[in-house]
TrEMBL record:
The species this protein was found in: Balaenoptera acutorostrata
Gene name linked to the record: SNX9
Main location: membrane
Protein name, entry field: Sorting nexin
Record GO cellular component, one term: Golgi apparatus
Entry keyword annotation includes Transmembrane helix: no
Biased composition (Acidic residues): 188-198
Coiled-coil residues: none
Length: 624
């Protein structure tokens, strides 16, 4: 049995399967990770429901009940689905070991080894937290060496250690994968994916969502029987298991693709070629639809590209499909941030629909602003199909695309001189150093902003309310004196008290007007930065392969010309990385200038409003 102490009051919303709890209350945890920053608990009355994970503190226990496998139905369902999915996805003994590791993390290793757990063994919650907090995406390429992704003969047909296929030693391949990892669609008919009703719960309007993913926590995706914690391996995508780094570096003749991606040298170095005219895509008019005679419901959004003004309709699962295709095709070279989270209950509430639409809008705007993504065939088809037949044809064509993973570099043509290996490695290290530092800075600002949001919507307004009530109570006491000459003073004190109550309301509402946008911007960039370890990993792996090529030339496994081709192709990868970083930097400068300027403008207006209210209250007190 796992117990937790409630740290903050939480009021359940009707119809959301939530549980009302009060500060100091002790509840029993029946499912420690429902997904999206929520857990399931039971109070002393036997009432059961969802509670935000960050609202409770797990209490230490003797480690007895929590390690038994006679767990709840939800836990057993999770284990069943885990076993089934693992058995289906993995056939080797190493994969079986991975399953054992995952089972150990959720506290059921007792069923696999007969030794009883000691009292010092971690609880399920601590195991989960350990996996989550230790899920630093940067540790993969900081700690790994070239040998980590080599086959015994050094040149096995293994995919690179990028978004294409990750090393089994990569920390992102744990059960609680990085939120960047794609989670769906479910297997089955390619035109009938998983429905919106099995979406894991996204918690508050903003900051709880960031909590859930801050340490690589509950990933986005379906939540059948607790499977929201499982990551669909990217090597299961078409193409990702096929072209490995060696295939790109050692191919005698690269196929000439129809889609070519030019790279030119501009004022700030290598850069993508931007289209002559740009466009955005407006996401609007969310409408509820249903299928199967009303048994299943969903929300459909209207998308209108500004360059055509012709609207198309898409459900969330269609966005999910687009994200998958972009990640599969471009993920080795371009960071593709994940979509906003799905959710289990309350998904048709106005607040959630508004938030999801806002984040889908931001995601689409990001894609439209990228010169490579926006001009790609799959993205254009997503926005410009004319009927269902054209949509399905384009969809199947995209899914059969073979220029995916590292083979995307074969479509790139830098109009620049060849680079030497030392310069290539220096450029790669510089990108890795900056993106890692920025990732730390963004996470710090998210943490600070989250705490500030909590204070502004919780304790701080209450303090102002207490001041207001205390002043009004004092005025009431003064009024009971019966003294004739203090009416004006009592009225002034009463109004001052009301002013502080108004300030309390202003403080509680202000984060939605300024902090929200700053946090959203950081949340977006956190998603971008989470992609770079894989991208950097691919480049470092390619560089190591070139370093090893001298030995292969010496043993006649490859020719000197093969080595020259390898250096040239790694140079192409370097130019692509530099071009992407120049695009990233230009967007970063514009975005942070805009959002921090907006934040400060709103803060100035906020404090000026408070100052004016205090001046009015002050004016009621005469100078004596």
């Amino acid at each position: 049995m796992m117990l937790a102490r409630v740290m903050y009051d939480f009021a359940a919303e009707p119809g959301n399967n939530e549980l009302t709890v009060n500060e100091g209350e002790i509840i029993t945890i029946t499912n420690p990770d429902v997904g999206g920053g929520w857990l399931e608990g039971r109070n002393s009355k036997g009432e059961r429901g969802l509670v935000p994970t960050d609202y409770v503190e797990i209490l230490p226990s003797d480690g007895k009940d929590q390690f038994s496998c006679g767990n709840s139905v939800a836990d057993q369902a999770f284990l069943d689905s885990l076993s089934a999915s693992t058995a289906q996805a993995n056939s080797s003994a190493a994969s079986s070991n991975n399953q054992v590791d995952i089972l150990a993390q959720i506290g059921c290793i007792e069923s696999l080894s007969q030794s009883p757990p000691s009292s010092s063994s971690p609880s399920p919650s601590s195991s989960i937290n350990k996996v989550s907090s230790g899920n630093d995406p940067w540790s993969a390429w900081n700690a790994s060496k070239s040998g980590n992704w080599e086959s015994p003969d050094g040149w096995g047909a293994k995919p690179e250690g990028t978004a294409a296929q990750r090393n089994t030693s990569n920390n992102w391949d744990t059960a609680f994968g990085h939120p960047q990892a794609y989670q769906g669609p479910a297997t089955g008919d390619d035109d009938d994916w998983d429905e919106d009703w099995d979406e894991p719960k996204a918690s508050s309007p903003y900051f709880k969502d960031s909590e859930a993913t801050e340490a690589g926590g509950a990933p986005r995706g379906g939540s059948r029987a607790g499977a929201s914690s499982m990551k669909l391996p990217l090597n299961k995508f078409p193409g990702f298991a096929k072209p490995g780094m060696e295939q790109y570096l050692l191919a005698k003749q690269l196929a000439k693709p129809k889609e070519k991606i030019p790279i030119i040298v501009g004022d700030y170095g290598p850069m993508w070629v931007y289209p002559t005219s740009t466009f955005d895509c407006v996401v609007a008019d969310p409408r509820k639809g249903s299928k199967m005679y009303g048994l299943k419901s969903y929300i459909e959004y209207q998308l209108t590209p500004t360059n055509t003004n012709r609207s198309v309709n898409h459900r969330y699962k269609h966005f999910d499909w687009l994200y998958e295709r972009l990640l599969v095709k471009f993920g080795s070279a371009i960071p593709i941030p994940s979509l906003p989270d799905k959710q289990v209950t309350g998904r048709f509430e106005e607040e959630f629909i508004k938030m999801r639409m806002e984040r889908l809008q931001a995601w689409m705007t990001r894609m439209c602003r990228h010169p490579v993504i926006s001009e790609s065939e799959v993205f254009q088809q997503f926005l410009n199909f004319r009927d269902e037949k054209e949509w399905k044809t384009g969809k199947r064509k995209a899914e059969k695309d073979e220029l995916v993973g590292v083979m995307i570099f074969s479509t790139m043509e830098p109009e620049a001189p060849d680079l030497d290996l030392v310069e290539i490695e220096q450029k790669c290290d510089a990108v890795g150093k900056f993106t890692k530092a920025m990732d730390d800075g963004v996470k710090e600002l998210l943490t600070v902003g989250q705490e500030h949001w909590k204070r502004c919507t919780g304790p701080l307004p209450k303090e102002y309310q207490k001041i207001g009530k205390a002043l009004q109570s004092l005025a009431t006491v003064f009024s009971s004196s019966g003294y004739q000459g203090e009416t004006d003073l009592n009225d002034a004190i009463t109004e001052a008290g009301k002013t502080y109550e108004e300030i309390a309301s202003l403080v509680a509402e202000q984060p939605k007007k300024d902090l929200h946008f700053l946090m959203e911007c950081n949340h977006e960039y956190k998603g971008f930065l989470g992609c770079f370890p894989d991208i950097i990993g691919a480049h470092k792996g390619a560089i190591e392969k070139v370093k090893e090529s001298d030995k292969l030339v010496a043993t006649s496994k490859i020719t000197p010309q093969d080595k020259q081709n390898m250096v040239k192709r790694v140079g192409t990868m370097s130019y692509a990385l530099q071009a992407e970083m120049n695009h990233f930097h230009s967007n970063r400068i514009y975005d942070y200038n805009s959002v921090i300027r907006l934040y400060l403008e709103q803060q100035v207006q906020f404090y000026e409003t408070i100052a004016e209210k205090l001046r009015q209250a002050l004016g009621r007190f005469p100078v004596m």
